[in-house]
Every structure is written in structure tokens, then in C-alpha cells.
Design a protein that fits this description.
Layout lengths: L17 E6 L4 E6 L8 E4 L1 H5 L8 E4 L11 H15 L27
Parallel strand pairs: 2-4
Antiparallel strand pairs: 1-2, 1-3
Amino acid sequence: MGVVRRCTRTACSESAVATLTYVYADQTAVLGPLAHLAEPHSYDLCAMHSQRLSAPKGWSVLRLAPDPSTLEPTHDDLLALADAVREAGRPAMSQAPAPEEPAYPHLRLLKSDEDR
């Protein structure tokens, strides 16, 4: 199970449900679904803090609603999970070359006249 990310607001211990990012060039605060990875220049917010969000004067807030079709696992997600489980269950292959294979395939052993 993955680590539950917490709201980044001071003294809030609720689970994060949204990610806030500032676009300084456009003076826009973008609030969207929780990002897959925590970024150093974004802020994870709980439901209450994401609903109460306000932007500095002169800034706009862009709220991106999650796509309902992405909330549940898709058929491709389930197939990828099954493939990963199958791969993890396979025995590990040795990285060393097999004994019948030469360690240096580009080199050949030539017998001298004395060995014949």
C-alpha cells in the first residue's frame, strides 16, 4: 500500500485530495486532482482546504475537476497489473553466461601444430 499524502496546510492532518500549483506568469492558481507524485513547488490540500481556497488579489483560480472515467481502474490498468504479478512470480534468471556459451564469443581457440 502506498503512503497517504497529508494536507500541506499548517496543523492539518487530513488526507490530501487535490494539488495546488501556482502559474506565476499568468497569475493563476491551478487546483486539480491529486498529482501522482508530490512535487516540491506544488501543495497538496485536503477537501476542506481545497474548497476554501482563495487566490491573491489580481489572481484567478482555475479549478480542474477530475475526469470521472479515470477514478476507477480501466481494463488496461487491470491487464498491466496482471502482467506485473505474472512477471514477479517468474524465477529470477541468472545473469552469468551459461557454461556452454563462451565468455568471449568473439575469440576462438586455435590449436597449434603441436597439439594435433
